[in-house]
């Protein structure tokens, strides 16, 4: 995540708790601060109205309030039905699921044990003081998970701290294993978590679980003073699951950052790669894409190019021992509503920066490039499902379904369950499959989606997919939570545009 929005742009947003429709699936795009929030489109307003209509009709029959109904499995199904009514049949959902809680419960139970590894998750440390992050919280609550506003005092920084992280990730979703990440700003005091705090969370969760439920990054900051000494310390003491970095430099202030860098800089970062490979920590996760609206003019000296994948082919070819996982699949900025982005794709078959990533294996003969879909999937699936399907088709055709990995950028977006459901139900329309040679995504628990959800990351991180996660400490806590009436929260965090499009 990052905060690129100016004061003027922030003044054009409003907090979620003021204008939130508590839908199980967002009815507006949500910005985590890395791009300008797009106002609710006419189609999204239609989706919202249809969700309300379906909810009111069914809730009355079931003797529930609208809000209570929308927190059920049938409410989730109703949201996807509404999206199909507006966008065309892209999500696999039946009217029976939306009308009959038993049908929704049966499906949920059948998929509850699906192996899901979320490789992009966040929380902030207890002494974190930067209130700017609440803009992210508010925007996501407005557009993704409005139930986040519930509770004493409404939304506070506590929503982004450890206890809520545990609840959202493991109790309110089907996630089995998560990877805890962070954001390395130029000022270390502003970091969500430092490398030692990330390691502490890993040890704490896994001690409670009695199993390997939480993987963890160490943050790497090339060019910053003492960065290579920190790499050495992490190798010796922290021993992370993998590395995380931002080639743009400071994701909080890319317009003024002093430390952008390139993946293929032999003098700066190749010595790090050498140490990483020698230590056996050979997965490098890199934030790419998600530029602000005015990225070409606001980031001086063409600095936005550090967020593209032009530096990836040489690095991947020079270091075949390293797995390069590109976060957000390098999706370029949301300059305009996705209708225009979709029209460009329909015309050219090209998605800015995503297509550049997808073509690297074929054009450069490498097999160590992966696309992570966090935030890119979350924003596109609720704004233009057809564009989202095109993005998934592009990634899978170019990288292979065995080189696309699941991530959600939660807990910034609250419980990731709605994103899980969206991918489970998403299918690439037949006409796109025929025109562009895209293979179908298939069933919710079919080969392709199982690979993306968990098996690909299990291979990257050498996880035992046969491990008994149904009876460990986390599973027991979740069972007790559900028996006591615990419910999934539809809450999220971030920025929402103040005015809808005409």
Structure description:
The chain has 502 residues and is of the alpha/beta class. It has two domains: 7-112, no CATH class; 117-135 and 153-460, Metal-dependent hydrolases (TIM Barrel, Alpha-Beta Barrel). Helices cover 44% and strands 8% of the residues. The protein is built from 23 helices and ten strands. The protein has helices spanning 7-10, 16-19, 42-62, 66-70, 73-87, 95-99, 101-111, 133-143, 162-171, 195-209, 227-238, 270-279, 295-298, 312-318, 338-348, 354-358, 360-364, 376-383, 385-399, 417-425, 430-436, 447-460, 473-483; strands spanning 13-14, 117-121, 177-180, 214-219, 242-246, 283-287, 323-327, 369-372, 404-405, 496-497. The strands form two sheets. It has an eight-stranded parallel beta sheet with strand order 2-3-4-5-6-7-8-9. It has a two-stranded antiparallel ribbon with strand order 1-10. α3 runs antiparallel to α5, α11 (227-238) runs parallel beside α12 (270-279) and α18 (376-383) crosses α19 (385-399). The longest helix is centred in the first third of the chain and has 21 residues, at 42-62. The relative contact order is 0.17. Mean pLDDT is 86; it is low at 1-5.
Q: Roughly how much helix do the residues carry, as a percent range?
A: 40-55%
Q: Alpha-carbon distance between the termini?
A: 29 Å
Major beta sheet summary? 8 strands, parallel
Task: Provide the domain count.
Answer: 2
CATH architecture name of the largest domain: Alpha-Beta Barrel
Q: What is the fourth-level CATH superfamily of the largest domain?
A: Metal-dependent hydrolases
Shape annotation: globular
Do you know the CATH topology of the largest domain? TIM Barrel
Under CATH at level 1, the class of the largest domain stands as: Alpha Beta
The stretches of 5 or more residues where confidence is low (pLDDT under 50) are 1-5
| Cα gyration radius (Å) | 21 Å
Count of strand segments = 10
